[in-house]
Amino acid sequence: MRVEQENWSPEMVAEFKRRQRGRNRALFAVLAGFCVLIYAVAVVKLHEYGQMW
Amino acid sequence: MSEIAFVNSTELGATAGDWLALLKPRVMSLVVFTGAIGLAIAPVHINPVLAVTAILCIATGAGASGAINMWYDRDIDALMARTAARPIPGGRIEPNAALAFGVVLAICSVLLMAVATNLVAAALLVASIAYYVFVYTIWLKRLTPQNIVIGGAAGAFPAVIGWAAAAGNITALPLLLFAIVFFWTPPHFWSLALFACKDYERAGVPMLPVAKGARYTRVSVMVYALILLPVSLSPYWLGLTGRFYAAAALLLGLIFVYYTWAVLADKQDETGRSLTGDKPARAAFKFSILYLFLLFGACAVDRLI
After folding, report:
1. Chain B contact for A37, CB < 8 A?
2. What per-residue string of b and e applies to B260-269 under the rule 16 or more CB within 10 Å gives b?
3. CA-to-CA distance for B188 and B156, rounded, in angstroms?
4. What was the ipTM of the complex prediction?
5. How far is A53 from chain B (nearest CA, A)?
6. Considering chain B, what is the average pLDDT of its residues?
7. Do the Cβ atoms of A26 and B16 come within 8 Å?
8. Which percentage of chain A shows pLDDT scores above 70?
9. DSSP-H helix ranges across chain B
10. Which of B35, B99, B127, B204 could link B158 by a cystine bridge, Cβ 3.0 to 4.6 Å?
């Protein structure tokens, strides 16, 4: 795992944090999308087999 | 900022875009398109949510294969100008992290495909991933100049998977779409190999221009384009598509043959190396992508009219 280095300039620390934030947001979006997708597939499947409505 | 640029690729870690690049988004767009067409032309209605999920699974499976391919090929990628800036040779993503990323995505895509659609589509997705990783990447790519002829089948799977996701079976039309992509791959890839020949030579990959020479490759490109023409018309001859598709296939096929003829007739030295900066090969490569998009698009339109 990458961590901030003591010899980094403020610009480098800012860039490191920007990238970290970007990765975190992308991961959140992917996981949230995956949950929504699984939920939607489950609803459709249950509906198709007449077990929900 | 120049200091940042200097450590850009190693110390500061990967961006989200680097992880996306592992999935080979350009290849993925073609895979998504052919998979969507396979799904759309199947004679069975599928719920839109399941259709989108199936296409997403095809895209993710293809992306996972790409990530594993980049993990395995990281040594030769570092030697080629075209691929040296990729996240692994660029030092922004650890090789093992890329492998884990690819394997996890592959497993998730197959499981989700099985849950959302059917086991036939899931099994085909497994086959396409395994074929690309084990048959093409690990076995054939560094072994034979026919690597992309045999390995090219991996790229032909998505249309069949799309069809199977909707229909739950495989009939003649998806198999013909498979054959079209199979015979389209050599002229498409060898056109690229002609102008990226030095890269492949440096990396020791036995692509056709490296192993057999540029002149042999030019002939092969045109031969496969000529074979592709009747193959692309076969869905019409077998009564599976209508005249609109036939007209599009004939027109596009003839244009593709013309482009490959230009590759063959390019000004070249005695070894077949281009004296024009491989302009015809670059044009043929670009048109080959457009060709596949338009041909598959015509197939989908034909089923609607």
Report:
1. yes
2. bbbbbebebe
3. 13
4. 0.82
5. 16
6. 91
7. yes
8. 83
9. 2-7, 16-21, 25-41, 48-72, 74-77, 95-116, 119-130, 147-151, 153-167, 172-195, 197-203, 208-211, 214-237, 243-264, 279-304
10. B35
Q: Minimal CA–CA distance to B300: which of B200, B197, B166?
A: B166
Which of B67, B62, B77 lies closest to B154 in space, CA to CA?
B62
Rounded-to-integer distance, Cα B102 and Cα B270, Å: 44
The b/e string for B13-30 (b: 16+ C-beta within 10 A; e otherwise) is bbbbebbebbbbeebbeb
The SS3 assignment for B94 reads coil
- Closest to B31 in 3D by CA, of B58, B1, B65: B58
At CA B198, angle to CA B195 and CA B202, rounded to 5? Answer: 150
Is residue A22 less than 8 Å (CB to CB) from chain B? yes
The one-letter code for the residue type at B304 is L
Which chain B residues contact residue A26 at CB under 8 A? 16, 19
Q: Could you tell me if A45 and B38 are in contact, meaning their C-beta atoms sit under 8 angstroms apart? A: no
The answer to whether the Cβ–Cβ distance between A48 and B4 falls below 8 Å is: no
End-to-end CA distance of chain A: 48
**Can you spell out the DSSP letters for B209-259?**
HHHT-HHHHHHHHHHHHHHHHHHHHHHHHTTSS-HHHHHHHHHHHHHHHHH
Residue B238 and residue B176 in contact, taking contact as beta carbons nearer than 8 Å: yes
Q: For an interface test with B, give the residue of A41, A43, A46, A48 to mutate (most B CBs within 10 A).
A: A41
A23 touches B at CB < 8 Å: yes
Q: Which residue has the higher pLDDT, B102 or A51?
A: B102
Q: Give residue B12's identity as a one-letter amino acid code.
A: L
Helix A10-48 vs helix B95-116: crossing angle, to nearest 10? 20
> Does B5 reach chain A within 8 Å, measured CB to CB?
no
Q: Which residues of A touch B16 (CB under 8 A)?
A: 22-23, 25-26
The pTM score is 0.89
pLDDT score, position B123 = 97
